[in-house]
Amino acid sequence: MSQRTLNSLFKPTSVAIIGASNTEKRAGNVLMKNLLSSGFSGPIMPVTPKYRAVMGVLAYPNIEALPIKPDLAVICTRACRVPAIVETLAQFGCKVAIIMAAGMAQEFNEDGVSLLDLAMQNAKRYGMRILGPNSLGMLLPPLGLNASLAHASALPGKIAFVSQSAAICTTVLDWANNKGIGFSSFISLGDATDINFDELLDFLGRDSRTSAIMLYIDSVNEKRHFLSAARAASRNKPILVIKSGRSAEGARAAKLHTGGVGGNDAVYEAAFRRAGMLRVNDLIELFAAVESLAHSNPLQGERLGIISNGGGPAVLAVDELIMRGGKLAELSEDTIAKLEAVLPNTWSRQNPIDIIGDANASRYAKALTILMDSNELDAILVLHSPSALGESVEIADALVSVIHAHPKKNRLNILTNWSGEDSAYQARKRFTKGGISTYRTPEGAVGAFMHMVEYRRNQKLLQEVPQSIPDNIPTDSLTARKLLQAAQAKGKSVLETHEASPILRAYGLNTIDTWFVKDADEAVAIANEAGYPLALKVQSPNILHKSDVHGVMLNLTSAEDIRHAANAITQRVHQANPEAIIEGMIVQKMALTAGAQEIRVAVISDPVFGPAICLGEGGSEWDPTNDAAVALPPLNMALARYMVIQALKTHKLKDRHLPLGLDMNALCVMLTQISHIIIDCPEIASLDLNPVLAAGENITLLDVNTRLHDANADSSSRMAIMPYPKELEEVAELKNGLKVMLRPILPEDEPKHLAFDNSLSDEDRYKRYFGVRSKMTHEEMAVLTQIDYAREMAFIATAKGPDGDDITLGAVRASIDPDNTEAEFAMAVRGDHQGIGLGKLLLEKLIKYYQANDTPVLTGFTMFENRNMASLAKSLGFKVTFDMEEHLIKMHMDLKSPTDK
Questions:
Q1: Which of 43, 73, 667, 744 could staple 14 via S-S, CB 3.0–4.6 A?
Q2: Where is the ATP-grasp domain (predicted)?
C-alpha cells in the first residue's frame, strides 16, 4: 500500500481514456463527455485506434503514442483486453488506473489464470495502483474532475463518499444534487481488488478538503488495516457507514455482489462502534446524515430546543428524541420571561416552544433569536406545519437571516423541518440554499441530530480512562496454554466444563466443582465424597446443548437419585438421537441460584473480524446477531462496561433486579479476563459459557464448551485489533542500580502519564514540545495513551515509588506512516532521572522494535538547545544534521542493513 501513489488518484494533472469512443452510450463516450463537461483543467487524452479525434479532442492510436505520462488512466474496454492494457500503462509510467469492466474474476486465459489476477500481477510488477474493477469511476468536484460513468456531476463540498455499489453512488449523487449538497470526493470502489477502504480512509482522514466521510460497505477484506485506518480517521472527523447484509439473505446477496467474505452483522456493528464510526441503517438515514454533515457545526453538547407552530409535530419530535436517548433542553426563568414578551399568552411556557399555529415570520425570528442568545441549548430544531395563515417562505427567509447574522452561528446547530409537500418545498429550498439542514419530518430531523449526538458520545466513550483489573485476579497464560496444547496433542477438538475448568481458573474465573464419570457407579462414588445436592449431565461429542435432549437432571439428593437419573438421561438421549455416542456423565455440585441471574457469554469466530465476544441471556436457541451485545477483543474495563451498557440498552441483557443479580464491576472483570484468555490462547477457536450465574460480586461458570483449533492452524493474524504486546515488557537496571520496567503504554496509564508530563520542568517541556504549552487535557492524554499498536508505539519506563505504586520516569514514542516507510520519534525523561542511562535504554528499545517491524527509517527532530538529545542519538548511530533555517536538529537512522536494501 502506498499513500504516495494515491496522490495521483486524488490530485491528477492529466487523464488518459483508454477505449474512448464517439459512439453514443459506450463507456468511452460517456467518460469523455463527463470529463470534458466537468471543467478539468489538465490534458484529457483519448486513446483509440478507431478515430483521429474523440468529441473534438485529438486521439492517440495507442498508449505509447501519448505525449506525456498520464497521472490517471480510465480503462473503458472489454475485460479481455484489460490485462495487456494495464501492463502497457504500467510500463509507460502511469501510476493509477480505473477499471470499468466487470466479471474479470470469472474469465480465464488459456493457462487457467483469471483476467483479474493477470491484471493485478501486471500492475504490481511496476507499482501501478488499480481502482476497481467494476468501478463506476470517481468524481473530484474541487478539481472539476468527473472520471465516471455517472449520469450527473457532483457539486463541490466537504463530504467524501466511498461506495462498493455503483447504484448507491448514482442514487446518493442524484439526491445530493437536488439538495444542493456537495462532495470533496466521490469514489466508486467496485470490487476493491487493490485500492480499498483502508487506504482511502487514511488519505481522506488527512485531507483538508474533507470534513466528514461516508461509506457504503458490502464487505471488508483487510480487517486490521480497515479498523486501524478508521480509528485514526474518526479521531479527526465523523465517519458514517451504511452496511448491507443485515439479514442472512442480504449477506449472501452482498457476497455475490462483491465477492467478499460474508461476516456476522452484529460483529460488523461492533467493529464500526469500536472504530468510532456511526452506522446508519438505510438510505433514508444516510440522506439525513449527509444533510446534517453538510451543514452542521461540531456539537458542543446534547441539549435540544424545539420551536413549533403546532403541538402535534413538537410532541412527535420529543417522543423520537427521548426514545433515542436524547436530552430536551430546560429553559431558565430568564429565557421564559424573554419569550413571554414576544409570544401570545397561550404559548407553552416550556420546551418545546409552541408559538401558536398562525405564527408569522417576525414571531419565529424573535423566538429563535432569544434561544440563540441563551446559553441553555446546543442545538435548535425549528418545526413548521402548513397553515392557511402561515407565511411559509417568508418565515424561512427570516430564519435564514437570523441564523447568518447571529454571532453563535458557528457554534449552535440549527435544524429545520417544514412538513408537507407543495406548500413546504420552496421553504426547504431556501434553507438548503442558505446552508441550513432541513428535513421532511420531525422524526427525520431528530434522527439526524441524534447521529451527531451518538458520534460525540462514541468519541467520549472511546477516550474513557479504564480502571485496572484488581491485582488479586490471576492471569496465568503459561498454565492455560500448556493445558490447551496438551489437549491438542491428544487430538481433542472440544473441552467440556471439567476439562476447561483449570484453564479458566488460571484467569481467576470460577467454575462449579465438576467431575467426569463413565457410569452411574462412579457417579455415586463421587457424590458420596463430594456431598449432595448434585446435578448430572450427559457427556456426548454429538450433543452441544444438553437441555435440548433432556440430558440434564438437577437437585439429586441420594445415590438412588443418581442411578435413576443416569438411566433416564441415557434413554432420553438415545430416543432423541440414536446415533449419539455417550462417553459418560458430568457430575456437578448444585449452584446456589436463589437471588442470582443466569446469563450467557460466548466467543465466536467471525470469518471477517475473527474472535468476537457475545453477551446476552441464556438459552439454546441463541443467535448473536439478534440475542447478544457483541464486542471485539481486546477489552479493558472501560470497553467491557460499554459492552454491558449496550447489552442492557438494547435489552439483549435484562437486569431483573434480583437480590444477588448483576454487578457491573464483576461482569466487567469477567469479560475482560475472557478477552485476555482469547488473546493469550490462540488454541481456542470458540468458547460458550452457558449458563453463567451472576450473584452480585460472585460469578460462576456453570457449563463450559470450548472448541479448539487444529494444532497446525495459523493464528498469527486472527485478531482484528492488535492487542497489547506483552512480550515487549522487560526489566532493566539503570546506572544508579534502580530497576525499571520498560513496556508499551496502556490506556490505564493515563493518570500516571499525566503526572509524568506535569513533572517535566519548564525547560524540558519547552524542548519536548518545541515551545511553551499548557498542561495536557484529558482528550490529548487519551490520544497519547490509547494507541493503535499496529500504527504506533510508545514505550514507558516505570519504577516503584515510595508508596509502592508505579511512577512513570520516561517515555519514547513513534508513529509510522501508513506505508511503513518511516517512523518519527519523540522522547522525554523526568529531570530527576536524567543522566543515568534511561533515555538510552528507551531509545535503544524503540530502535530494536522498528527494526523488527521492517521499518526502513527512524527520524526525529529536536531544538538547538537540546544538544544532549542530539549527542545521545549520535552515540546510537543516528546521522545528526542541523537545519539553520528552522533552528532544528534532525536525527536520521537507516534501520535496514546494506544487505536488506
A1: 43
A2: 501-733
